[in-house]
Amino acid sequence: LLLGAIAVPLTLLWDFSWESTIGVDRFFGPPHAANYLAVALAGGAALRMAVDATRAGVGGVALGRMRAPLGAWIALWGALAFVAALLFDRWWQSNYGLAAGIWHPPQIAKALSYFAVLAGAWIALLGRQRDTRGALAAALAAAALLALITVMTTAQSFANRQHSAVFFELGCAAYPLVLVAQCVAGRLRAPASLAALGYMGIIAAMVWTLPLVPASPQAGPVYNALDHLLAPPFPLLLVVPALALDALLRVFAGRAKRGGWASALEAGVAFFALFVTTQWLFSAFLLSPAADSGLFAGGGRHWPFFLRIEPSARTAYWDFMSPSLDATGACLAALLAVLSARAGLWLGGALRGLER
Amino acid sequence: VKALCAALAGALLCAASAAAHIGSPNVFFEGVAGAHPVRIVIRPPQTFPGLAQADIRVTDSDVTGVSVKPTFLDAGDETTPPASQATPVAGDPQLWNATFWLLRRGSYGVEFALESARGGGRVAVPLQAAALARPVMPPALGATLVAFGALLIASAIWLAAAAASQAGLTPGAAPSPRQRARGRAAAGVAALVSCAAVYGGSYRWQQMDRDFANALSKPLPVEAEVRREGEQNLLHLQPTRDAPVTAAWDTLVTDHGKLMHLFLVREPDHDAFAHLHPVRRDSLRFDGMLPPIPGGTYQLYAEVTHEDGSNETLVTKVNLPPPSGAALQSAAGPGGGTLCLSPSSSPPAGADQPSALDFDDSWHMGVSSSPQARSAPLMGGGRMEFQTEGPLVADRDTTLRFAAFGADGAPLALEPYMGMFGHAALRRSDGAVFTHLHPAGSVSMAAAEMLARRDGNASPMPLASAATAHEVEFPYAFPQAGEYRMWVQVRTGGRVLTGVFDVNVLERS
User: Fold this and answer.
1) N or C: which terminal CB in chain A sees fewer CB atoms within 10 Å?
2) Of A274 and A97, more confident
């Protein structure tokens, strides 16, 4: 289950790199096929859990005679939704192509199914934290979910957009939910930090390995010549705010009990402050010549072949696409972080008490 | 992920392109690549990114390889991807097949490079890639997706209820009434969210479909009107008021020496036909003298080529008054009703012809002698024969071959008519297909010549054709089955003659 869950963002990153380098792939192109296998692996593992629970006859959530842990049911639902979305998407791609728009209904359905599969895997593994290995597996499943959020927001997450209000608003709305819930429901000393480290590991692995594969664009116009698979953008440094969340919610929380909203306020503001500061500074580094290496794939030199981009825009922040973070944007991002953290606290509490 | 990649490309994918030929998207080309005669059919995709397919027929046996390289003309040569190698088709030593990806719609120059012991050769064929039709989902797929959707919604509602009422219970424990109520509430919320998702999804689909339909390749909307000036009828053609503000005709280039080729077909019987060449008056208006064709409602097809190589067929209708003043030239053919005319430096005795007509204008009254007839009467007592053998089948590459004979049965020597030995206009009976062909195929000559100049190649379409002096051939594949009328125009003795044929094109089995 964990392998399938981690393979989902890995194969999506491979697909991003393939389409950014080679340009075109078919329904059963290698990254697509690997992605289907990843979902099938996660779905198959969830089905196995269901079979085991049904045979045992106790535990799990019952549907008629069938039983399965809640997480396994959610992952199975996601796998079924993926099949439907794939059928729909195949028809859509061969009839509308990309000309009708970007986030089209089957694309949204596919994204939803990925989230369901990964959330199901995470929930199922959170329920199996009997030892360190189990707790580590749950943290890695959370890492896969974090990576999926980054993959889905790739267009907003380029280093050139990491001063924009929309980048911070999206990040503050999405990541604290998973990190805080993992922090509350994880059984390790620093579960959120481990998940964030795992997240960075998943994406960094692709940043470092994909460029080793020779490839070149097969469709034109080719605005950026490439001779190897493009590295995806370097991962966000989520480990910094995650460390603060672990500290606030696990180390200090024991000393002074607070209400959910007070904790959410602390966690949300801490996440906002550290996330903004870290990415604000780190993106400047990523755009500098110092990051122009295989390690960071930065320096404004790594672009999809189809992207027509002026030399001056390669290392600049793209304020023309969306405005830079200002006081209003910062307030909104902080508010979203607090709300996301509150939802994370509720979810984490519910998952910690998960019995089935 | 494709969507994420495309999001980066942003508006680059949204540029609309024009439509050349109505209902006939495939490109036919017959010419030379270096010293090698080639015949090429390109079938562009209807969605983008999409795979285009090319059939390359090479008659020379010393050709050892063919490669294909599409250049997006707006972007330039330096953005061209590596060439795709064509593969020989098993069982047909002259035929090669290649596929290549087109990332987006727009104007392409597709370069075919031939390798041979004689140094090979290159030829670039203009291609306009455009989405033409609004998608329709097959009912079976629709029903499958609805079934999937219903199952997913039902299971999502059940999952929400189960999670809310049972997830926190130790194994074996039964939910309390409060937990059951919580489960029902969660089910209600899940049902509401599902309904909202279905509504939102269908709304977005409708919106995207509408936008897609609006961006489909459509010719510039134009309107035509007829004004009387003295004894002459003048036709004015200009964009309609609701045409895009960017509409302008100052970027046109000449094709066969003319900025516009205007075809008029009288409704409803298509018994009068004219091929005229109006003159551009300003960036938004074309004017042309009307020849003495009968009054009535006419369908107009105006073909223009832009300087970027794209060409489009503009469509409108106009009511023409009956001609007056200048008398019709009296040159009845053997069919009695056939008049096949054009301005001439030596008009028949007594004939009065409108002044200021283009020398290459021509018009024709009368239908084919009988449906499916293989021979059509020509003015002056001659005849034109349709010599393509066997049935015509939709989507099958074919050569439409015609031969002209004089009143005495002797072959007529054909002369170049606007740089070609013949021009043909084809129209499906319902108007769904209209195309203008010449012996070099369906490509715009202007665009092909422009590509040849750009690449430093020789003209890809030498005037000398494989046809003998009295024959003319057009490479084509009818895009749809149905009844078609073909007007085939040749010049002989300084005059343009038109043969009219009705043909039935069969469904491809």
Assistant:
1) C
2) A274
From residue B309, alpha-carbon distances to B6, B128, B250, B458 in Å are: 26, 9, 14, 17
| Set of chain A residues whose Cβ sits within 8 Å of the Cβ of B155 | 77, 80
Residues B226, B219 contacting (CB under 8 angstroms): no
Determine the distance in angstroms separating the CA of B107 from the nearest CA of chain A, rounded to an integer: 12
- pLDDT tens column, A172-224: 999 999 999 999 999 988 999 999 999 999 999 999 999 999 999 988 789 99
Please report the ipTM that was assigned to this predicted complex.
0.92
Question: B13 vs A98: CB contact, 8 Å cut-off?
Answer: yes
Rg (CA), chain A: 21
Tokens of B244: 């895009």
Cβ–Cβ < 8 Å for B431, B483: no
Q: Give the tens place of pLDDT for each residue, B36-70.
A: 999 999 999 888 888 899 999 998 888 999 999 99
pLDDT band at B354 (very low <50, low <70, confident <90, very high): very low
The answer to whether the Cα torsion of A300, A306, A307, A312 is positive or negative is positive
The alpha carbon torsion through A287, A288, A293, A295 (nearest 10 deg) reads: -60
CA distance to partner chain B, nearest, from residue A270 (Å): 30
Q: Do A99 and B76 touch (CB under 8 A)?
A: no
Picking from B1, B103, B170, B194 by the largest number of A CB atoms within 10 A of its own CB, the best residue to mutate is: B1
SS (H, E, C) chain A: CHHHHHHHHHHHHHHHHHHHHCCCCCCCCHHHHHHHHHHHHHHHHHHHHHHHHHHHCCCCEEECCEEECHHHHHHHHHHHHHHHHHHHHHHHHHHCCCCCCCCCHHHHHHHHHHHHHHHHHHHHHHCCCCCHHHHHHHHHHHHHHHHHHHHHCHHHHCHHHCCEHHHHHHHHHHHHHHHHHHHHHCCCCCHHHHHHHHHHHHHHHHHHHHHHCECCCCEECCCCCCCECCCCCCCCCCHHHHHHHHHHHHHCCCCCCCCHHHHHHHHHHHHHHHHHHHHHHHHHHHCCHHHCCCCCCCCCCCCCCCCCCCHHHHCCCCCCCCCECCHHHHHHHHHHHHHHHHHHHHHHHHHHCCCC
Following CA atoms B232, B233, B234, B236 in sequence, which dihedral angle do they give, to the nearest 10 degrees?
A: 170
Give the pLDDT score at A90. Answer: 93
| B145 closest CB neighbour out of A31, A84, A304 | A84
Strand B279-282 to B285-289 pairing? antiparallel
In B283-377, where do the E strands start and end?
A: 285-289, 296-306, 311-320, 339-341, 362-365, 375-377
Nearest to B280 by CA among B250, B305, B307, B243: B250
A260 vs B37: CA distance, rounded Å? 80
Nearest to A220 among B6, B8, B80 (CB): B80
**Average pLDDT for chain B:** 82
**Global pTM value:** 0.83
B201 with A109: Cβ contact below 8 A: yes
CB B460 within 8 A of CB B32: yes
Measured distance CA(A213)–CA(A17) in Å, rounded:
11
Give A-chain residues touching B1 at CB under 8 angstroms.
12, 15-16, 19, 31, 151
Beta strands (DSSP E) in B106-217 are 106-116, 121-129
A23 contact residues in B (CB cutoff 8 A): 49, 81, 101, 103
DSSP assignment letter at B121 = E
Contact B3 A103 (CB under 8 A): yes
Shortest CA distance from B82: residue in chain A: A218
End-to-end CA distance of chain B: 38
Q: Rounded to whole angstroms, how far apart are CA atoms A48 and A121?
A: 13
